Amino acid sequence: MSYTSLKIGRHLPRKDSNSLHKITKETVYEKINSLTNTCSKPYFNQILIKLASENVANADIICDYIVSEQNELNIKNSTKEGKIKTLVWLSNFFDNKIIFRQLSNQDILQYLNNGRKSIEDDKTHLMKRTHWNYSLL
What is the reported pTM? Predict the structure, then answer.
């Protein structure tokens, strides 16, 4: 299991498969609005709302994770925004069809490597920074 998936799962309360079906879009929309009301741009609210309309479980997991990070680690707003964006991109990469808890190590590596450039194409080594940003989660 990758560090990213371990870290995401570490802060979230465990939910059995039955409780995932009890999540309502209205509840998740309330969480999203509460979570994103301090964000610098409405973009973060919009991408989470769009995700919730396609995969309510992943949107709920992101909200719970970010709230946990805020409470436990007192993360900055910019950190919160970066994590929201990266986690939504992760879900979008799999067409919002896989719930985060079902992602395997191989799935995470596939996501991290999807935009990797060859050494010849990336002479300035910008890809290292991009990969590092993705792996911060």
Answer: 0.73
